[in-house]
Amino acid sequence: MTENLELYDVTILGGGPAGMYTAFYSGIRELKTKVIDAQYQLGGTLLYYLDKMVWDVGGIPPITGKQLTEHLIQQVNTFEPTIVLGQEIDDLERRDDGTFVLTSTAGDRHWTRTIIMAIGFGGLRKSVKIEIDGAERYENTNLYYSVHNLEDFRGKRVLISGGGDSAVDWANELEPIAASVTLVHRRDQFKGLERSVSNMKASSVSIRTPYRVEGFHSEDGVSIQQVNICHAESGESEQLHVDAVIVCHGVTYEYGRIREWGLGIGKWNLDVTDKMETAIPGIFAVGDFVHYGSKVMLIAGAFNDAVLALNSAKLYIEPNAEKMARISSENTRFNELNRQLGVVDDDE
Ligand SMILES: Cc1cc2nc3c(=O)[nH]c(=O)nc-3n(C[C@H](O)[C@H](O)[C@H](O)COP(=O)(O)OP(=O)(O)OC[C@H]3O[C@@H](n4cnc5c(N)ncnc54)[C@H](O)[C@@H]3O)c2cc1C
């Protein structure tokens, strides 16, 4: 290697339920583990239903998506894997020695013996961009497609474009924090949850319908200071002064350049063997990304895939290793952790 890259046994692409449980199990099997996700938080699809109750995960009583995400994050950290967030991986290099180098769209590189793909159904969720020439130049300043930190908007005049769940939810979340919130939507009806829409209408959010955003004006060429909105029927234009613009025009799913890796991805999923093997030796796949005869597209199914894939990766790296991890009580990996929990081992 020409660069000072650190070699990992297992690199898991995707930090949703499948990726997180795979990383935990990889720790049990004493493999040096890294998890990479394009999002800035672990949780995968769970992050899109944080308030929903989840009833069907074995051994866990009804729990919100948020609580389940927190439990999974606590569990994944048990063996302290390396976690890399905010990196979209799109390139794969297979080296002569059988190892792989993964590269992100920003050029970050990761060196690994095996890869476990946990990239979900349909691949990466991407925001639909606003159709205004040159809008991308404001993405580094005050044009947002998602909200990572509510505090970024404290005391600001915020304009939100869109009429679905996200637009309405962000309007409600930001209303008590921002100096003002204006929601611009091209229709009079909203697609958001009825209760959220009623809350928004009863609040100080200024609702401008049927209007669409037709242009941005910048005095410094760096950030947006004014937004031109246009009445959908009369065509009449108006200028609004803003400090930040949030665009919520929906999402698309795409595998991007991962399709070119030679895995043989179908329209939505990837066919794998019963050992979670893909067409490329050393690369395994799990969770909603995969398809096989009896595949269960639920979190319970993702957990099962995780164990199978990780055991396959372990045997790929160490062909003489045990086929699966021992049960917790027979696994020395848990002795120290039991002590930390105050549990005394019978044999001691
Ligand atoms: C509204 C809704 C409600 C649901 N309710 C339930 C329920 O009650 N019970 C249940 O069991 N299941 C439920 N599910 C299904 C469950 O969420 C999925 O089965 C589960 O999330 C699959 O986990 P995963 O880790 O395979 O994929 P995901 O959770 O989709 O995670 C994939 C991760 O991979 C990352 N990724 C993708 N491509 C890249 C890339 N190129 N580089 C870096 N990172 C990448 C993504 O950012 C994402 O974080 C629900 C699903 C939805 C949509």
From TrEMBL:
Its EC number is 1.18.1.2. Gene3D superfamilies: FAD/NAD(P)-binding domain. FAD binds at D37, Y49, I89, L124, D288, S329. Keywords: FAD, Flavoprotein, NADP, Oxidoreductase. It comes from the Bacteria. Its cofactor is FAD. Residues 8-303 form the FAD/NAD(P)-binding domain. GO terms for molecular function: ferredoxin-NADP+ reductase activity; flavin adenine dinucleotide binding; NADP binding. InterPro entries: FAD/NAD-bd_sf, FAD/NAD-binding_dom, Fd--NADP_Rdtase_type_2, Ferredoxin-NADP_redctase_2. It catalyses: 2 reduced [2Fe-2S]-[ferredoxin] + NADP(+) + H(+) = 2 oxidized [2Fe-2S]-[ferredoxin] + NADPH. It is an enzyme of class 1 (oxidoreductase). Binds 1 FAD per subunit. Belongs to the ferredoxin--NADP reductase type 2 family. PANTHER family: THIOREDOXIN REDUCTASE 1-RELATED-RELATED (PTHR48105). Homodimer. This is Ferredoxin--NADP reductase.
